C-alpha cells in the first residue's frame, strides 16, 4: 500500500473507508517510497500519540530525509523541520511552556472581536457578487489576517507572506526553496524588529522570553516557532472554513439546525472538524524501542504514520462515523492531535471556524453552491483542502455587532 494512493485518491472518503476494512497497523510506502507503518484505527492512533516510546524527533532515525524530499534548502531547512511538533520532552516541554505562556486563552479571547471584524470586511466585499470563490473571498485571507495580527506582522506584509506560502505549497521544488528562504529571512527580520520595538503581540512576548530568560529560547527556535504558527494558523483554519462550508451546504438539514440558532455553530464546529478536519495524517513518529501494536512488532527507528482521517471515522469510536451529525456530542476527534502534541493553536482555530461560518451563514441566508457537489475538487496532498468553492451569495443582511 502506498500513502500517496490515499492522499491523492480522487475519492478520499472511499480511500479512508478502505483503510478501516483492513488491519489497524500495516506496512506501507511513504511518499518517497520509504517503508513505513500505517496506523489507521482510533485506539492504536491514540496509543502512538501518547506512548512515550514513540518519538517525534526525525533525527532519531535515518531512513527518510524529509527536508530534501520536499525541496527545503539545507541552509534554511532547520527552521522548518525543527518545529514544536518535532521535539520530544523535555525540549518539547520547554518550548511549549514558552508558547503557552504567550498563546493563552486571554489572547484568543481578545482576538475574537478582530476575527469578527476581518470576517465582516471580507464578506462585505463579497456581498455584491453574483458568484464568488469562497476560498479566495474568505477562507484563505481570514486566517492569514488573524495570524499576522497574532504575530504582530504588519498588514502591509500580508501579500508577501501569501505569495511565499503559495510557493511553499506549489509542488515545484525550486519555488519551494525560494519561498522557504523568503519566509525564514522575513521572520529573522521581524524578530529583530520586535527586539528593538516590542509590542503586545505574541512574537514580541516570545522574543522577550529569548532575551530576558537566559536565552533559553534560541533565535533559531524563535524563527521556527513563528513559521510553525504561520503555517498552522493559516492552513488548518483555511481548510476548516472551506471544508465546513462545503459540508453544511451539502447537508441542508444540518445547516437548518445551525441557522435556527447561530450560537449552535460552536457545537457544530466539532463535527465539521471530525469529518472535514484539515489534517488527514500526523507528523511521523519513530519507536525508541521495540513496540507491539495492533498485532505487529515495530522495530526501533521505523517510521510510523498515523492517519487521523481514518481514526475519525472508526466505527468502534463513533456511531455512524461516515455521517455528518452536527448534534453529535462525542468530541473526541483527532483533528487537533492528542497528547502532549495536541495543537497549541486549537482554541484559535475553533474560534475562527465558529465566527467565520456563523457570520457567513447569518449574513447570506440564501447562500448556495454554484457547482454540483460532484464537481468540487480537493487539492491533492497531505492536508484536506478544496481547490475552489464557487458559491452564489444571494441576498445579504447587514453585519451584526460582535457579542
From TrEMBL:
It holds the Pfam family p450. It comes from the Bacteria. Keywords: Heme, Iron, Metal-binding, Monooxygenase, Oxidoreductase. GO terms for molecular function: heme binding; iron ion binding; monooxygenase activity; oxidoreductase activity, acting on paired donors, with incorporation or reduction of molecular oxygen. SUPFAM superfamilies: Cytochrome P450. InterPro entries: Cyt_P450, Cyt_P450_B, Cyt_P450_CS, Cyt_P450_sf. Belongs to the cytochrome P450 family. This is Cytochrome. It comes from Streptomyces oceani. The lineage of its organism: Bacteria, Bacillati, Actinomycetota, Actinomycetes, Kitasatosporales.
Amino acid at each position: 500500500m502506498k500513502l500517496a494512493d490515499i492522499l491523492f485518491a480522487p475519492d478520499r472518503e472511499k480511500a479512508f473507508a478502505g483503510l478501516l476494512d483492513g488491519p489497524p497497523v500495516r506496512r506501507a510506502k511513504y511518499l518517497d517510497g520509504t517503508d513505513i507503518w500505517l496506523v489507521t484505527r482510533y485506539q492504536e492512533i491514540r496509543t502512538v500519540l501518547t506512548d512515550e516510546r514513540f518519538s517525534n524527533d526525525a533525527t532519531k532515525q535515518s531512513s527518510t530525509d524529509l527536508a530534501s524530499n520536499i525541496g527545503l534548502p539545507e541552509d534554511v531547512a532547520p527552521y522548518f523541520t525543527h518545529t514544536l511538533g518535532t521535539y520530544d520532552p523535555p525540549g518539547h516541554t520547554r518550548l511549549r511552556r514558552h508558547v503557552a505562556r504567550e498563546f493563552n486563552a486571554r489572547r484568543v479571547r481578545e482576538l475574537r472581536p478582530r476575527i469578527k471584524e476581518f470576517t465582516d470586511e471580507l464578506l462585505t466585499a463579497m456581498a455584491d457578487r453574483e458568484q464568488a470563490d469562497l476560498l479566495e473571498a474568505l477562507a484563505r485571507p481570514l486566517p492569514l489576517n488573524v495570524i499576522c495580527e497574532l504575530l504582530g506582522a504588519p498588514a502591509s506584509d500580508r501579500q508577501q507572506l501569501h505569495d511565499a506560502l503559495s510557493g511553499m505549497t506549489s509542488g515545484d521544488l525550486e519555488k519551494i526553496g525560494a519561498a522557504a528562504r523568503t519566509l525564514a529571512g522575513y521572520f529573522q527580520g521581524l524578530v529583530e524588529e520586535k527586539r528593538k520595538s516590542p509590542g503586545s503581540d505574541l512574537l514580541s512576548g516570545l522574543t522577550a522570553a529569548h532575551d530576558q530568560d537566559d536565552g533559553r529560547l534560541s533565535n533559531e527556535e524563535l524563527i521556527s516557532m513563528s513559521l510553525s504558527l504561520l503555517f498552522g494558523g493559516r492552513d488548518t483554519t483555511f481548510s476548516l472554513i472551506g471544508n465546513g462550508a462545503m459540508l453544511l451546504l451539502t447537508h441542508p438539514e444540518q445547516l437548518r439546525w445551525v441557522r435556527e440558532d447561530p450560537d449552535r455553530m460552536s457545537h457544530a464546529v466539532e463535527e465539521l472538524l471530525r469529518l472535514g478536519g484539515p489534517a488527514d495524517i500526523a507528523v511521523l513518529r519513530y519507536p525508541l524501542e521495540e513496540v507491539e501494536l495492533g498485532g505487529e512488532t515495530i522495530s526501533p527507528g521505523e517510521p510510523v504514520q498515523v492517519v487521523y482521517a481514518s481514526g475519525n471515522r472508526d466505527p468502534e469510536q463513533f456511531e455512524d462515523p461516515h455521517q455528518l451529525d452536527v448534534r453529535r456530542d462525542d468530541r473526541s476527534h483527532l483533528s487537533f492531535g492528542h497528547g502532549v502534541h495536541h495543537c497549541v493553536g486549537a482554541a484559535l482555530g475553533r474560534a475562527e471556524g465558529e465566527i467565520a461560518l456563523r457570520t457567513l451563514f447569518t449574513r447570506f441566508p440564501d447562500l448556495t453552491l454554484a457547482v454540483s457537489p460532484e464537481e468540487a475538487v480537493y487539492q491533492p496532498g497531505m492536508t484536506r483542502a478544496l481547490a475552489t468553492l464557487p458559491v452564489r451569495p444571494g441576498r445579504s443582511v447587514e453585519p451584526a455587532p460582535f457579542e
